[in-house]
């Protein structure tokens, strides 16, 4: 059986509840153990300091009496009760012990060199019986000689008491650790219970489920925010799924019409044995094929944009040239007039349309083909709905904060867009009048493509009422130079086309 290298190199992670319990318990045990050790050291130091103070006071008292009364009073001076100390003695300059009083076992503590007169020395000694002594020596001058007064205390009994207290405290540490583990495990269970509820609910939500949401805890905390975020995500998934189903249904419906026409004509030709005449091909079959090809290309463009975003070239684009070229193309289609601002024309498309265009110089960075697709789709949309007149206008708005913005307006004098549908009109396969749009060749994808391309250029698009009645579509795009060396386009009067 081959070894799993990832399993060998990746440490297995504990559940959050277990990991938190272990970490919290370990921290509590370490803190309590460190506190016990620190408290023992502090108490031991304080006890030894108190012992040194008591020994020093007794030694200074005996030294004072020795200086005042002489060596002959040594026995009397040390004969007072020990009162907590274990050794009191007077040592002559030659190292002999003149007088002393000791507890049992400390009789053979050797005499140490006498300190200088008035000097106090504190030492740690190991007694012959193994006891640990804290000894204080005070030097005193008597009749030309330097005597020493030694006072010592056995610290073993105090250290034993402190050690017993430390052991008792340390014995409490495992109990405190166990109590901490139980409490943290229970508390984390309560805290993570909403998370488990969310997880189980998400696991129950089916792929086809709609409107299903996770429970939101009442407490305003991180878990409730997580639940609300997940519900918002589920709502977006529902909306995306609904849009996808509608998109597929609409696409199937739109493709069915030209396919039915082609299939019917081919079946008729096959069963009757009569070839399809050229007039039928030109007037019926080829337009349906072109309509289907355009729709497939539009669907492919939108699908690519949904998958990875629309890839854009970054070229220096003269937007005014694009608007003028589309105005000229429109006049060729409808037989429109001279194109001057306010000019009129006639002919084409059932009586002709007046086409007016007014542009200012506008240069920006973007994809020239995509921007031409934006203007063309808006122009074609206006052509399908206009009665008598279409107007194209390009201006540069330099009054807004930040970079200037190019503003493209395409007006028609048709029925307009109702205010409650001015956002949804940019949805895929959206129509205000499905029969009219389909009769004039619209697929409901043109404005959706306009919105996608405009957003990918950092711009925006909206629908408004045209000043003279009808619909106005406004596209705003940021104007920026391709590099810093490109001269700014001078601002001048609008050019009539």
Write out key terms for the chains shown:
single chain, 497 residues, alpha+beta, six-stranded mixed beta sheet, five-stranded antiparallel beta sheet, 10 helices, rod-shaped
The rounded distance between the terminal residues' Cα atoms is 78 Å
Helical proportion? 40-55%
The largest pleated sheet is described as: 6 strands, mixed
Number of helices: 10
Strand line-up across the major sheet: 11-12-10-9-7-13
What fraction strand?
Answer: 15-25%
Shape: rod-shaped
Mean pLDDT figure: 79
Number of strands: 13
Quaternary form: single chain
Computed Rg: 50 Å
SSE order in H/E notation? HHHEEEEEHHHEHEEHEEHHEEE
Low-confidence spans: pLDDT under 50, at least 5 residues? Answer: 6-11, 338-351, 434-439, 481-493
Backbone structural class: alpha+beta
Structure description:
It is rod-shaped, with a radius of gyration of 50 Å. The chain is 49% helix and 17% strand. It contains ten helices and 13 strands. A hairpin with a 7-residue loop joins strand 9 (389-397) and strand 10. The two termini are 78 Å apart. The chain has a six-stranded mixed sheet. A five-stranded antiparallel sheet has the order 2-1-5-4-3. With 497 residues, the protein is of the alpha+beta class.
List the helices and strands and how they pair.
Elements: H1 5-9, H2 16-69, H3 74-78, E1 87-91, E2 97-102, E3 120-126, E4 132-142, E5 145-154, H4 156-204, H5 222-272, H6 278-308, E6 315-318, H7 319-334, E7 354-359, E8 363-366, H8 368-385, E9 389-397, E10 405-412, H9 434-439, H10 446-456, E11 460-465, E12 471-478, E13 495-496
Parallel strand pairs: 7-9
Antiparallel strand pairs: 1-2, 1-5, 3-4, 4-5, 6-8, 7-13, 9-10, 10-12, 11-12
Helix pairs in contact: 2-4, 5-6, 6-10, 7-8, 8-10
């Amino acid at each position: 059986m081959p070894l799993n290298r990832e399993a060998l190199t990746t440490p297995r992670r504990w559940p959050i509840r277990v990991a938190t319990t272990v970490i919290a318990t370990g921290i509590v045990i370490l803190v309590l153990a460190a506190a016990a050790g620190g408290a023992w050291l502090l108490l031991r130091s304080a006890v030894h300091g108190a012992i040194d103070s008591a020994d020093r006071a007794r030694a200074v008292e005996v030294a004072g009496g020795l200086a005042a009364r002489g060596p002959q009073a040594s026995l009397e001076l040390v004969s007072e009760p020990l009162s907590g100390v274990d050794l009191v003695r007077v040592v002559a300059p030659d190292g002999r012990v003149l007088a002393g009083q000791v507890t049992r076992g400390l009789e053979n503590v050797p005499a140490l060199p006498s300190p200088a007169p008035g000097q106090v020395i504190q030492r740690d000694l190991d007694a012959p019986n193994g006891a640990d002594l804290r000894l204080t020596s005070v030097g005193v001058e008597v009749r030309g000689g330097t005597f020493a007064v030694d006072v010592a205390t056995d610290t073993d009994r105090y250290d034993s008491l402190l050690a017993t207290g430390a052991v008792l405290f340390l014995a409490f540490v495992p109990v405190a650790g166990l109590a901490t583990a139980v409490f943290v495990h229970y508390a984390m269970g309560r805290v993570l219970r909403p998370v488990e509820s969310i997880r189980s609910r998400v696991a129950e939500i089916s792929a086809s489920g709609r409107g299903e949401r996770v429970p939101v805890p009442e407490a305003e905390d991180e878990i409730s925010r997580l639940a609300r975020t997940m519900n918002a995500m589920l709502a977006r998934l529902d909306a995306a799924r609904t849009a996808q189903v509608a998109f597929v249904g609409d696409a199937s419906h739109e493709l069915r019409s030209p396919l039915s026409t082609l299939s019917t004509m081919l079946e008729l030709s096959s069963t009757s044995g009569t070839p399809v005449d050229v007039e039928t091909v030109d007037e019926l079959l080829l337009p349906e094929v072109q309509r289907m090809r355009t729709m497939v290309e539009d669907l492919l463009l939108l699908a690519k944009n949904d998958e990875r975003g629309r890839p854009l070239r970054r070229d220096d684009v003269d937007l005014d040239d694009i608007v003028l070229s589309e105005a000229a193309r429109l006049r060729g289609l409808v037989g429109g007039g001279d194109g001057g601002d306010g000019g009129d024309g006639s002919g084409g498309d059932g009586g002709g349309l007046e086409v007016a265009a007014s542009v200012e110089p506008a240069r920006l960075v973007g994809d020239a083909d995509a921007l031409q697709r934006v203007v063309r789709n808006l122009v074609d949309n206006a052509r399908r709905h206009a009665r008598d007149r279409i107007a194209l206008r390009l201006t540069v708005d330099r009054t807004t904060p930040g970079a200037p913005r190019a503003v493209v307006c395409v007006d028609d004098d048709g029925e307009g867009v109702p205010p409650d549908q001015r956002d949804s009109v940019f949805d895929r396969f959206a129509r205000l009048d499905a029969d009219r749009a389909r009769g004039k060749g619209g697929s409901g994808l043109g404005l959706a493509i306009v919105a996608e391309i405009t957003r990918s250029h950092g711009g925006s698009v909206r629908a408004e009422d045209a000043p003279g009645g009808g619909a106005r579509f406004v596209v705003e795009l940021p104007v920026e130079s391709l590099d810093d060396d490109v001269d700014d386009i001078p601002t001048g009067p609008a050019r009539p086309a």
